[in-house]
Automatic annotation (TrEMBL):
This is Protease. It holds the Pfam family Peptidase_M57. Residues 1-22 form the signal peptide. InterPro entries: MetalloPept_cat_dom_sf, Peptidase_M10/M27/M57. It comes from the Bacteria. Keywords: Signal.
Amino acid sequence: MKNKVLLTIGLSAVIAASVLFSCNKNNSKPAKETTVAVSADVLKQISDLGFSTDEVRKQGDNYLVEGDILLTAANLSEASTSPNLRIAENEQYRTTNLVKSLPRTITVSISNLPTVYATATSNAVARYNALNLTIKFQVVSSGGNIQIIGFNEGPSGGYITLGSSGFPTSAGDPYNQIQMNTNAQAYGTNPDVNYLTSVLQHEIGHCIGFRHTDYMNRAFSCGGSRSNEGSAGIGAINIPGTPTKADAGSWMLACSSGTDRTFNANDKIALNYLY
């Protein structure tokens, strides 16, 4: 997920996902950065999977797309065949792959992060479990199905990445890692636990197969010009009972508002439809 830093202005998973609470944040001045060129072949693979090729960044052996989605080499080589799920024009979307073998308990562990991150993890898990879905989450001391780790990275291109994660595997397992930014410009020197909870909630949404709510127009939460994340030509399925207009309160918006966003009524419809 990104948060606009507003200068003068988060596998074998099929695809990694971002969180638009503004998983990005705006800053007072642009940051100096060293960019690694991404080849045309890789950009085509990213586009074929249905992701935007704007501002793609190489991160180790992976590629960060759409602000908070990590794509691995396995993701890039995996063909997508199933339809994407769509809720109206600017509503919730899912990836091709979903978590299988339901009902199921997914374990979540966190390591080498301050206590406030651990508290936020427990809170995010509790929010999901309160919905009584066929997916349950359980915090464990280590080795979770989803492991939360930290990284430290300042602003880039007018945004700062708050967290990143990926999408479920073709075998039906959740994406296995969430990375949370410990840079002071992401959450400040004394992070607000509710804000952290909302970002983790968003990144867990990616891990179980949700794309950004404003998938068709990221400008809704991120600002700037209209930007479509792409559909990869694999179609979309509307979820009955959901609105046809943009939903400002959704937990899966591409960019963060810097506030504590949790599930709204339409988010709950989408979660109950899938799980």
